[in-house]
Task: structure prediction
Amino acid sequence: MADNSINRFLKLLARKLKSFLYAKDVLSFLLFVALSAGFWFVNALDKNRDINVSIPVIYADIPTEIALTNKLPTHISVDIRDEGIHLFSYANNKLKPLNIEVNHKFSNKGEFTVNAGQLNRQLQTYLLPSTKVIEIKPDSILIKYEKLHVKKVPVQLVTKIDLQHQFMMSNKVDIKPSYIDVYGPKNLLDSLNVILTEAVEIKNLKDTTVVTVKLKKPEFLKFNAHEVRVTFFVEMFTEKTAEIQVNNINFPEYLKVRTFPAVVKATFNIGISHFNSYNANDFRVLIDYNEIKQSKDSKYKLKISNNTSYINNIRLTPEEVEFILEE
Result:
């Protein structure tokens, strides 16, 4: 019974409230309030107002051989004046950075100041033409620096290459640039002999491939490049057999050596593109006096000197030769 009374009361209250809100006088009042608020807002946008904006900054045009040594502000606080409608452009919290161009001639003094006039000129190109700068904080920026030493250092590739069956490297790996200008304190440069790349791992490589590889940068050093372009030359190979004469090295002029046999058979893998252009000087089969002068053995296991990248897996028949020395 009590629940029915409450429900009847709530329904009656709802009807009264609805009747009130839809009454002509109330609707007119609400419309008047909305129009007044709109006129006030439009009027406010037309008036000049002052606001403060925090602008992120970056320091541009600093030469590679220069290191900044003091902590610089990452933002500047700027009081500006403009019409309200234009100030909406600065309401976004993610303002793009202001490039503070450091067009200073770096000398041995070790410091210089970006003054208020320079900051103001750079702000003029950053802000809207109608915006007036009232105050900048800080009004100047002291920049301290030191000149770095430079050293040209070779790049060393860190790689693990897995070639597909019946394929080989047909040329030396090409790294561009192969040397990097490194800037830093002299004591660090003196101990730096190579610049390592990030590791490159390629599986089942079967074609010439070009990759871009980032360099590993030691702390406190600066590079004139941060990555290198690496080319792996790959092609199919086939097997070839050739007769190779045994050559001697490191023998004194008064000694001659005779080997038995004087010519050996070499079987090796060679890149297909070099198969027809192969010549007997592509690699050498050697007997080295420095290795036999203290030996009493009359047999010698032949050495192979191969300076090509398109020949590998050289097998000799026989691997050993007999020799005699003659004065």
